[in-house]
Amino acid sequence: MSFRKDFIWGAATSSYQIEGAAQEDGRGESVWDRFAHTPGKVFMDHTGDVACDHYHRYREDVALMAGMGIRNYRFSIAWPRLLPEGTGAANEKGLDFYDRLIDELLAHGIRPFATLFHWDYPCALQARGGWENPDSPKWFLDYAELIAKRYGDRVKDFITFNEPQCFIGMGYAFGVQAPGVRLPPSTVVPMAHNVLLAHGLSARMLHETVHGARVGYAPCADACIPASESPADVEAARRCYFEVPDDPQLWARNVSWWSDPAMLGHYPEQGLSLYGQYLPRGWEGDLAVIHQPLEFYAQNIYSGHVVRAADNARGWEQVPPPPGAPKTAIQWTIAPDALYWGPRFLYERYKTPFFITENGMSCHDAVSLDGKVHDPNRVDYMRRYLRAYKRAAEDGVDAAGYFVWSLMDNFEWGQGYNERFGLIYVDYATQKRTVKDSAEWYRSVIESNGENL
Ligand code: IFM
């Protein structure tokens, strides 16, 4: 047994992290432009103004991708590039950029997977209340419809939102990402509901507008890994994975609040008991819109923590990692079994073809004297994680795809350019690209459909 024959192997990026050209061709300002330009918010005050200059170098990047054997590319569209004011008049030059990118991908035999929103929210809409505004789902729908009508003849695979846990939870509750505010659940819960409604509205519209559309959704979370395979530990890990935290700043870091409404048509009971009081009037009526049939359910998984059964009210407790447990450069615990238990628990619950839409490793890579970038740690990380994912597929998970994060080194949000996740090394001073060893290895994985893992 192996991965299914039509398994999708790909690589992912996002607009603000790679495009640059932040003030070019009529692009509007996003909350990330403003946040990054606020001193002290991002490592060394780095910004995405230039990033990988992909806006100008997309042809070179697509050619590199094709040379690496990548046949599926997940990218995101910058809302303020298409609609500088967030709504209203479209920016033809912005629309034209994605036309050219999509055409270039197709000319190289690469299938585009377009993420509608990967965090670069228009400042013009933020000034109107952003996701707090009850009109915000409709604003998103209009933006999504522009994309569907313009690109739907060539793009069939769409992901509505990337990691709402981060752009809502880290942006508005924990306050460490753009726009960087700390608001209470009474404000953030209605915002989250508006995001879910925007997801449902746009998924429905994509199915109605784009012939043959395949729509998915990409939240995230560290997976819970049972300490042993005893039924008690497995159940403890499952409970932990789907529990909504009782914490006013961290509550949004969970799986079920963000996925149950979209995938099952209801909010999780345990979460409702904590936060249901803050949902906007009429929320029950929105659930039918939020709950749209999706062709795939996705998750971004990088890490996990070990959980065991415990004799306490929750029924579980975390097992602290042992001293010296392996970590990536960004300090995330290396936990390959996250790609077994995460997909397994999620598929059991949501019963929908499953994608990993992000997984990868930050390393402090360097160009060696031989002019190459040797990154054995990344190869080892990916091999371990992919083996676990393959085991999940063998145990019945309908594993349909995997996108490595990331195609190329890029602007890593609050960490600026300090972290490198790419298969392609980017020298930001010269914009020279160097394909890393891991890219060569990934090509062999793709060619063997994971048989060589
Ligand atoms: O770079 C990010 C990406 O934008 C969202 N998921 C996690 C990645 C690594 O932090």
Question: Please, could you describe this protein's structure?
Answer:
The protein has 453 residues and is of the alpha/beta class. It has a single domain, classed as Glycosidases (TIM Barrel), CATH 3.20.20. It has helices at residues 15-18, 31-36, 54-67, 79-82, 92-107, 123-126, 136-151, 164-173, 185-209, 231-242, 256-264, 269-275, 283-290, 338-350, 376-394, 437-447, and strands at 8-12, 72-76, 111-117, 157-162, 214-218, 223-226, 297-300, 304-309, 316-319, 354-358, 399-405, 424-427, 432-435. Strands 5-4-3-2-1-11-10-7 form an eight-stranded parallel sheet. Strands 6-8-9 form a three-stranded mixed sheet. A two-stranded antiparallel sheet has the order 12-13. Strand 8 and strand 9 (316-319) form a beta hairpin. Helix 3 (54-67) runs parallel beside helix 5 and helix 9 (185-209) runs parallel beside helix 13 (283-290). It is globular and about 55 Å long. The two termini are 13 Å apart. The model has no long low-confidence stretch (mean pLDDT 98). The structure holds 5-hydroxymethyl-3,4-dihydroxypiperidine. Residues 14, 17, 163, 300, 358, 405, 412, 421 line the site of 5-hydroxymethyl-3,4-dihydroxypiperidine.
